[in-house]
From TrEMBL, chains A, B:
This is AGE family epimerase/isomerase. Belongs to the N-acylglucosamine 2-epimerase family. SUPFAM superfamilies: Six-hairpin glycosidases. The lineage of its organism: Bacteria, Pseudomonadati, Bacteroidota, Sphingobacteriia, Sphingobacteriales. The keyword Zinc does not apply. It comes from the Bacteria.
Amino acid sequence: MINNAIMFSEYAKVYRDNLLNDVIPFWLNNSADDELGGYFTCLDTKGKVFDTDKFVWLQGRQVWTFAMLYNNVEQKQEWLDFALHGASFLLKHGRDTNGNWYFSLNRSGVPLTQPYNIFSDCFAAMAFAQLYKATQNELYKTIAIDTFNNILRKKDDPKRGYNKAFPGTRPLQGFSLPMILCNLVLEMEFLLDAKIVEKTINEGIEKVMDVFYQPDLGLILESVTPNGDFSDSFDGRLVNPGHSLEAMWFIMDLADRKKDNQLMKKAVDIAIDTLVYGWDEEFGGIFYFKDVKGHPPLQLEWDQKLWWVHIETLITLIKGYYHTNDERCLVWFKKVHDYTFAHFPDAENGEWFGYLNRQGEVLMQLKGGKWKGCFHIPRGLLQCSNVLQSLAEMQKNPILINA
Amino acid sequence: MINNAIMFSEYAKVYRDNLLNDVIPFWLNNSADDELGGYFTCLDTKGKVFDTDKFVWLQGRQVWTFAMLYNNVEQKQEWLDFALHGASFLLKHGRDTNGNWYFSLNRSGVPLTQPYNIFSDCFAAMAFAQLYKATQNELYKTIAIDTFNNILRKKDDPKRGYNKAFPGTRPLQGFSLPMILCNLVLEMEFLLDAKIVEKTINEGIEKVMDVFYQPDLGLILESVTPNGDFSDSFDGRLVNPGHSLEAMWFIMDLADRKKDNQLMKKAVDIAIDTLVYGWDEEFGGIFYFKDVKGHPPLQLEWDQKLWWVHIETLITLIKGYYHTNDERCLVWFKKVHDYTFAHFPDAENGEWFGYLNRQGEVLMQLKGGKWKGCFHIPRGLLQCSNVLQSLAEMQKNPILINA
């Protein structure tokens, strides 16, 4: 049964090699705008720029990635310089006069899209927090904290004037922001007041695990009523399995910090249930969207297989195994790993394809665009390789699993 | 070569049968909300309601369809009553206090989505104009004219406060509204001042054929700069072949009215060029979106095959042949007809599937939803069957074509 063995050290090497010898060089070599600053993210299969618009959240994510690599992997000057290159563009062009981060800029930094999207703020805060850790530059600290406080101020009405919903008819709360705050608060813990950290963590866990998680369904919904009830509407029926699975490793990190084994176990159970629900038994891979009542969802792209869904799921599974020894995590890790590494990485030109059709064929000839940048893959490769390495050190022998 | 023969009378019968014995009964039987008024449009494969939201533009389109059938096919009381059923719901709930039509309502008619979308207004205007023709009720006439004038007032800033674009950085004009005005003005001609009709027609033709049509590309773009120039951006590079093809029969109708043979011929040429460009040589069918420079478009659904694209193209091709005798139209008509009737109609449960994947398999198990209602298919089936019938009467023998 050696074929089914998870040789942790070998897997760790696969993830680390892909990160350091493929994905990171791809962005270093192809994405800098040396002339006008910031990063290009619209890169074709070979890494050639096909559009020059600059999406603020992707700029922030890439700054975060290189600062985080500098802080956590190796203090390479090249990585820090690359992060600073993006940060300087963001500082010059990223915000309006009220400190809200625009959604997108043109190549030279003139605003293209209004700051309607609070995720631009979230990733800017993460970016400048990591950069402060790397440089101790007080300016970055101030920007990170100010942006975080602005997020908390806006969080109950994140779209502000750009919300097209008629007020009051069908009020819904969305999963994305509470979920991301669970991660952001740990990212920024060293900069924040301890009380705010505790409050944000406890609220985040409650929202994710008690409000959006529906015990009768065994699933997390993307939108629920203000009371946390099910809304039988397109928005209310929507399940985004990748989102739920990503949230589970945010929760595992919080459970680990709190030494809360019950919370950890619950996160593993939800992850496995979501994976069983979201897995495409016919072609493999995890669906992008499903309607919880089995109706057709609004999203025409529902059956596609996306890069971030798969790498985030791998983080969740390996962390779940590390913390609980639950063998289901390992069985699924191997299954998702095999699908992912057979379909997404581009051995010829580097990096990963982002979008596959249901059958697993490449749907978009790109490595980056408006929604795919330098973030999920490097973050996931590093997290997985670190956890796999810890497992390898704990237990030298391969584990046989019934895959 | 009898297999390649277009027997116009037989084809006419196929379209008329599908309209009268399948599609129209499907909506009559399944879509009425007898309790709270208006129509359900979210119908599953068998016609069962799976969501009760009411999208104002689809309500308007369905009112238009049944009033139009009453006016143009047969004065069936059932059809008129069905149109009036939807109109009464729209009158009660459809507009804000300034006469703007909401985008969507909940089942009982309370607004769900603000009136950010000018197409709600366009289809309301069409609906009440047809209903006035059927009933001579002055109220409907007033609403149609008021709504038309409101559209003209809003047309240079159709999204009004809901536009997220930062003003001035990359101003673009969109193809949809000028295109639809080319059709709307003929629909409402009998209600409008002759000077406004002439002005709207001439402006519409100029916009579609001189501003959005790009002679160097041989294609129509969805967005161009205010001067009509190409914008090398995601929006500026976007081609929607179905949109361009639909617009060509609107232009043919105007060319016919103006007795402008040169305009007619140009519309046929653009239609054929667009079809050659948009046709999927591998799996058949017409792509939903393409990037004119061959880059990945933003739209993840770019390779899907949609019902409206195919039925609108059939109208264009048969009208093009009728007016010009251009044999390319007939060759393509047969090719698109064969693909369409092999893939979209559901012989078992009636009506057409709306969304196929690139391979031609059903992607969404629905007959109606947020974007598909009772409109394109009945309109297209009637237009095609009428033109085919005229061709059959003009020329009794089959025409052999080199398909």
